[in-house]
Amino acid sequence: MRTLAIDIGGTKLAAALVDDTLNIFARREIPTPGSRTSEALEGALSNLVAPLKGHADCFAAASTGIIRHGVLTALNPANLGGLEKFPLFRVLNRLTGLPGITLNDAQAAAWAEYNALGSNIRDMVFITVSTGVGGGIVSNGELLTGPGGLAGHLGHMIADPCGPLCGCGRKGCVEAIASGRGIAAAAQYELEGLTAKSIFAHAATGNIQANTLIQRSAECIATLIADLRIITDCQKIVLGGSIGLAPGYINRVCDVLNKEPDIYNVSVSPASYRNNAGIIGAALLAEKMIKKASPYK
């Protein structure tokens, strides 16, 4: 089976053909439309998939946000701009003429990373720390999505009840503190207005505030990992995303985690597939779910 796999993010749209052996070919990537309207996204997706759809047996789309009955929505609407309530499955089904599945990108990435670990791991949690914070949970070898697509939205667990307001409407969510957006929002003085990427560059030169902001993020993620360990009894945590995979970040997280009591500790490793995790995970799930009635639509 050959899958047209699509990854929809806040900054880029990617698509590729993926075969049964997970070879990726004919990969294409374009910027996410700046206007953030349904019409603009549909037009961009049409241009993205047009050269590939005739070479695939099905499509599999992994997108930021919540996928509920094939419709794109979000806990934090700011992460989607004007794309909330976008009928993703219906649009891609019409554009490609193919059967398919749609699901959250972090859930898809979790499935890709789980399949890369080997058969001795049955319980794993994937955390992506990037513009936002998301994740996916694999329990006893099965990906948890939930009837409403909510499972794995780990960034909206509370880290500090008195913390900053999150875009979801709660105070002190992990995402509001540890994400790239959270790091940048907390910056003051000489770092105010800079992106998380620039703050990491300043940290590399020894800037005290930049290092403090990044350490705060790492401590928040380490606490989240300890909570997930006790909730899920997972055997492995896989960390991804532009922040999660930034040089030295995992070491910071593990240093904090190692100070917790032993029962809260768990092995933490970097994501294997990096930018292709969503594409590969979506293709793997398509192969599994197209063969039966799919709950991912």
Automatic annotation (TrEMBL):
Protein name: N-acetylmannosamine kinase
Native organism taxonomy: Bacteria, Pseudomonadati, Pseudomonadota, Gammaproteobacteria, Enterobacterales
Pfam families documented for this protein: ROK
Gene Ontology molecular functions: N-acylmannosamine kinase activity
Coiled coil ranges: none
Domain of life: Bacteria
Organism name: Escherichia coli
InterPro entries: ATPase_NBD, ROK, ROK_cs
GO biological process: N-acetylneuraminate catabolic process
Keywords: Carbohydrate metabolism, Kinase, Transferase
